[in-house]
Design a protein that fits this description.
By secondary structure, the protein is of the alpha+beta class. The chain has 3 helices and 7 strands. The protein is 33% helix and 33% strand. Strands 2-3-4-7-6-5 form a 6-stranded antiparallel β-barrel. A hairpin with a 2-residue loop joins strand 2 and strand 3 (74-84). Helix 1 packs across helix 2. The two termini are 16 Å apart.
Length: 162
């Protein structure tokens, strides 16, 4: 099957999965197809997987999503630069304190309930006048992980013509 044919089938399967119209066999095929698609995205991003690591857990999507951070200095509203199932990055004028756990409210597209949780800074890079920060989600529920992953696949698929 051509890549375009496979992608069309995956889009159709993804749409049916979003509508919760998959039987058990189709759900297993869909999960396998999601992993294949994520592996292709991971490879295109020049990332390598650790042994036993799933591509669905590591691929990133450059996606602006509204996020509100609860910092010791107060509430900060920002837009993500990229998002993965494991975390997000953004730019702030001032980084949170060392070892500060950050509360977040990540707004979901289409008015769906936001994802609310905690994150920790895993990388900070000073830039001219600000900081690019990467955060790792802490203790996100499987339900919210699934919702976020679906949004990430939606975003990735929207960028591929077809």
């Amino acid at each position: 099957m051509s890549i375009n044919g496979w992608l069309q089938e995956f889009r159709a399967l993804h749409k049916r999965a979003r509508q919760k119209h998959l039987n058990e066999e189709e759900k297993q095929l869909y999960l396998q197809a999601r992993e294949q698609f994520a592996r292709a995205l991971t490879a295109a991003q020049g990332m390598t997987l650790k042994p036993g690591e799933m591509a669905r857990q590591t691929f990133r999507v450059a996606q602006a999503m509204q996020i509100e951070l609860s910092l010791s200095l107060g509430i900060v509203r920002a837009m993500t630069l990229d998002v993965s199932k494991g975390g997000f990055s953004l730019v702030l004028g001032k980084p949170p304190g060392d070892n500060e756990m950050v509360g977040y409210t990540l707004k979901m597209p289409d008015g769906a309930d936001p994802i609310i949780g905690r994150a920790k800074v895993v990388a900070s890079r000073k830039q001219i006048g600000n900081y690019r920060l990467s955060f790792a989600f802490q203790g996100m529920s499987e339900y919210d992980q699934e919702r976020l992953e679906t949004v990430l696949f939606d975003a990735a698929l929207s960028r591929i013509p077809g």
